[in-house]
Amino acid sequence: MVTISDIAKALGVTPSTVSRALAGSPRVKESTRLAVSEMAASMGYERNEPASSLRKGHSNVVGIIVPGINRAFFSNAISGAETVLNEHGYSVIICQSHENFEDEIKALKTMRSNRVAGVIMSHASTSTTCDHIMENIGQDTILVQFDRVFNELPGPKIVNDNFQGAYEGTHHLIEQGYKRIGNIAGFMGTLAYLDRLNGYKKALTDMGMEVDEDIIFFDSIVENKGYEAAKKAIERGCDAIYSAGDFSALGAIQAAKELGLRIPEDFGVVGTANESFTSIMTPSMSSIAQHPYEIGRRAAQAFITSLKPGAEVGEVVVPMELIVRESSLRN
């Protein structure tokens, strides 16, 4: 393996000069930096990143922690973040929490052991408090939260406008003539799902409709939970469902079909996330679209901005968009 000393010997300069030249130090003449760079390339020199990280205290690596990379939202957010980070010379380490609190702690410890320059994360649904986050990555590591965030933590937060998205989806169902609209809600320990529930409630009250807690079903973000919740909602007189997720909305459509209801004539459904299957299923599903690639880009940009002394990013709210399809379009 070619070392800094080998390059220094070949050029007749000191190893410290080579080291400074490779680091881009302004203390080294441009002609010397160029000569060192050319010699390093010709000799096949490869930078020892772990050793460099130990010297600097951090690496040119950013950690990204998500609940699961098999979900379109998080994979697209990662893609957006990585594009920006690569443009600024950063590599990425990705860890999954699998919606598990203990796995999230392990992921945070992995980031710390790799001396990452920053962590971009969306927390697990089972993480109901945030004490473990800064405790495990260290106070000096830049933290950027996206999608699922804790307001108590410092640093940038990139979020969907979940309240407005749920409001528009519920309002659309009311406009289509549905009279009793249930809610398949997510985990109330997660701010994004709480905002969606509040948006649903506000749309009902603004239109003079009652909020009935008996037709709100919590912790139901997967298909089978949505199926079970929709059956109960239909038994309790619901003619429509707003769901905080598309997978639970898919379960609701299956339940309605099984009970012999026509969609959208007898029963309407609006989901959230605009998953890829929503446009190709029969009937196609109305959904509140998120913009995950843009959220990922903005999260990475917030990290880059946070590197500047005294910079503050705060909260960035990205609008959501109602995509109307067959499952709710009755008029």
Summarize the structure.
This protein has 12 helices and 12 strands. The protein has 331 residues and is of the alpha/beta class. The longest helix is centred in the N-terminal third of the chain and has 16 residues, at 72-87.
Structural topology:
Blueprint: H1 4-11, H2 15-22, H3 30-43, H4 49-56, E1 61-66, H5 72-87, E2 91-96, H6 101-113, E3 118-121, H7 131-137, E4 142-146, E5 157-160, H8 162-175, E6 181-184, H9 191-206, E7 216-217, H10 223-235, E8 240-243, H11 246-258, E9 268-273, E10 286-289, H12 292-306, E11 315-318, E12 321-323
Helix pairs in contact: 1-2, 1-3, 2-3, 5-12, 6-7, 8-9, 10-11
Cα distance spanning the termini: 72 Å
Major beta sheet summary: 6 strands, parallel
Helix content: 40-55%
Strand order of the largest sheet: 2-1-3-4-5-11
Structural class category: alpha/beta
Unreliable stretches covering 5 or more consecutive residues: 52-57
Question: How confident is the prediction overall: mean pLDDT?
Answer: 91
Number of strands: 12
- Shape label: elongated
Number of alpha- plus pi-helical segments? 12
